[in-house]
Amino acid sequence: VDNDRRDLDMNSKDVDAEKMTRFIRMNELRLVTEYNPVTAIGVMQSSLQLHLLLITDKMSPKHPEQMHRYRAAAELFKGKIFFILVDSNLKSNERIVSFFKLKKSQLPALAIFHAPDEEQDVLTLDEVSVERVQDFCNRFLQ
């Protein structure tokens, strides 16, 4: 995951198939996956049913700092929510922006989507912060 090694303590007596499966599931994905035509199928077939999309302009000078904070928030929800980056500059991503009824002038924005029932919510942002992402996710989960 993102060039960071995670180890499961196999010397522990309470490691069973369920705990091993959970460890693998939680660590098989990047903290943030960029949505594009290559990753689209994997995103749709993810075992995680809750997707949080950061829809933003990757060319923005604020992008590196936004991603740093978004990854930090993703760490808090690892195994619960699939964090996805959507570059609003890609023509192929225009459908996603319009699906959430957003305009370019409203970006960056967070969009959360529950796949089974298609429930969703959107939050426009002036700045991406760990606290804002965490609050948004917690409100949706409740």
Automatic annotation (TrEMBL):
BP terms from Gene Ontology: protein folding; response to endoplasmic reticulum stress
InterPro entries linked to this entry: Thioredoxin-like_sf
Pfam families, sorted: Thioredoxin_6 (PF13848)
Signal peptide: none
GO cellular component, one term: endoplasmic reticulum
SUPFAM superfamilies for the chain: Thioredoxin-like (SSF52833)
CDD domains from the UniProt entry: PDI_b'_family
Family classification: Belongs to the protein disulfide isomerase family.
Protein name: ERP27 protein
Gene label: Erp27
